[in-house]
Amino acid sequence: MRARDLKACRLLAALALAAALAGCATPDEPYDPLEPVNRAVFEFNQRLDRNAALPAASYYADTVPNPVREHVHNVLANLSGPVTTANYALQGELTYAGEALARFAVNSTIGLAGVFDVATDWGLPERNRDFGLTLGTAGVPAGPYLVIPFGGSSAVRDLAGSYVDGFFSPLRYVGNFSGRNYVGLMRNVVGAVDTRSRNIDAYRDIERNSVDYYATMRNDYLQRRMRLIEQKSVVTAELPDF
């Protein structure tokens, strides 16, 4: 079986599992049947963060000038344009889909591959949608909460959605020319450093003020995803970027 067929099978299995299991959850109680495993993975990720990700992000934030970091972030954000466009279209939000496509076109050309965020000044603000949110908008439940090794918070629905988003990303097809997606790997590494550097203080404050850091991160993640599905973007800004 080819790799793409395997991914499709995993997606279908994950969606089926989400639909079957999520009914056990209640609105006020996160559905976390794998909590012992999740906590072990969470601790592993925390050790990795303390010894690798956080030092790298701190060094990046301290040594790279802010304008350069903003340009890097702009490029990374611009690459998600086709994913956002496709998911808004799938949700039937054609106005937002058109704006996302126009934003991607403007920043990719006039903005020099996204280095400069020209589109925001033209009245095309940044919005982000992924297939996990598309499924949530369609009523597909989140399913069990998951902590992904080397990744972080997720849920069955969101993990399955990430496979579909890969087909919308232009980096997938850039990598196909060489047979090895080094470009996609580099984007993931740089994106992880960028995201971590932009949330150093937020995560530090959450950990400092949490009785149970794992539970707080889990609840914040699920709450953020719920608000994104409801498109409560202003309230979402209060929560860290996962």
Quick structural overview:
The protein has helices at 3-21, 35-63, 66-79, 81-90, 94-109, 118-121, 131-137, 156-168, 170-176, 182-198, 200-209, 213-229, 233-236, and strands at residues 145-148, 152-155. The protein is mainly alpha-helical and 242 residues long. The chain has one domain.
Describe the structure.
This protein has 242 residues and is mainly alpha-helical. The protein has one domain. Helices cover 69% and strands 3% of the residues. The protein has 13 helices and two strands; from the N terminus they run H-H-H-H-H-H-H-E-E-H-H-H-H-H-H. The protein has helices spanning 3-21, 35-63, 66-79, 81-90, 94-109, 118-121, 131-137, 156-168, 170-176, 182-198, 200-209, 213-229, 233-236, and strands spanning 145-148, 152-155. Strands 1-2 form a two-stranded antiparallel ribbon. Strand 1 and strand 2 (152-155) form a beta hairpin. Helix 3 (66-79) packs across helix 10 (182-198), helix 4 (81-90) runs antiparallel to helix 5 and helix 7 packs across helix 12. 25% of the residues are buried.
Number of domains: 1
- For the largest beta sheet, what order do the strands appear in spatially? 1-2
Q: What can be said about the biggest beta sheet?
A: 2 strands, antiparallel
Question: What is the number of strand segments?
Answer: 2
Please report which band the strand proportion falls in: under 5%, 5-15%, 15-25%, 25-35%, 35-45% or over 45%.
under 5%
Measured distance between first and last alpha carbons:
33 Å
Q: Low-confidence parts lasting 5 or more residues at pLDDT below 50? A: 19-27
User: What overall geometry do the principal axes of the alpha carbons give?
Assistant: globular
- How many whole angstroms does the radius of gyration measure? 18 Å
String of helices and strands: HHHHHHHEEHHHHHH
